[in-house]
Amino acid sequence: MFRILFAILIAALVARAETSEQRAKRVIDECVQALGGDNFLNMQNRVEAGRAYSFYRDKISGLSIATIYTRYDSGVTDTAHNLAQHERDNFDKKQDFGTLFTDKAAFDISYRGARPLPADRFARYRATTLRDIFYILRVRLHEPGWIFESKGADVVENRPVEIVDLTDSNNLTTTVYFDQITKLPVRQLFYDRDEVTKDRNEEVTHFTKYLDTGDGVQWPFSIERDRNGEKIYEIFSNSVRVNDKRATDELFELPSSIKLLKPE
To answer: What was the pLDDT predicted at 59?
Structure first.
């Protein structure tokens, strides 16, 4: 408890000499350095392996041994609207089926072929990626029009945190809670509209168990995502590797010989 109170006191003293924008930028800069500085900013790919769970109404609806390959794409200029990453999620020990997310579409891949995912599912993936704090820090900070606003200090889940609103040029805001001691993100929150129902959704993601990937990058080995107060996804990584040679270009493309199936 003393440690928490001391951290809050120090943060309050520092904040007195800063504007809201200056304080927010300082917190963001400290976070980038805590994540690994140049090692984080120059990360080309990432491979996460572990157990992934999906939930429906807070009950487990799926469990998979998952290996998630993420590659950042440097050729994208309009990162405010276009994805600058590809992702391949392989499941089971053999990794013989999974999901491919490109910058424009997504596919379920199995021995039968590649089946396009519904447009609303890809739209949700795209929105979630563009609002993700790690993606913002790695890919999007160069964009003009960002507004950074400190919302002050607080204690969340027994952690002293700095709260920052990051609002992009499209007026989309992600609220991030940064641990005052480690400087790392522990929670993020944003709101969006369901593509089908047009309902307003609240999406909260929790980041815990940060470990060094072995390449000077800190990454959360436990991630939980909630929507409208209900847990929908959780991953516990056994390993996370950065700039891994296993993340070959072929993983992020549909083979020319694969059979294209009709959407469901």
So the answer is: 75
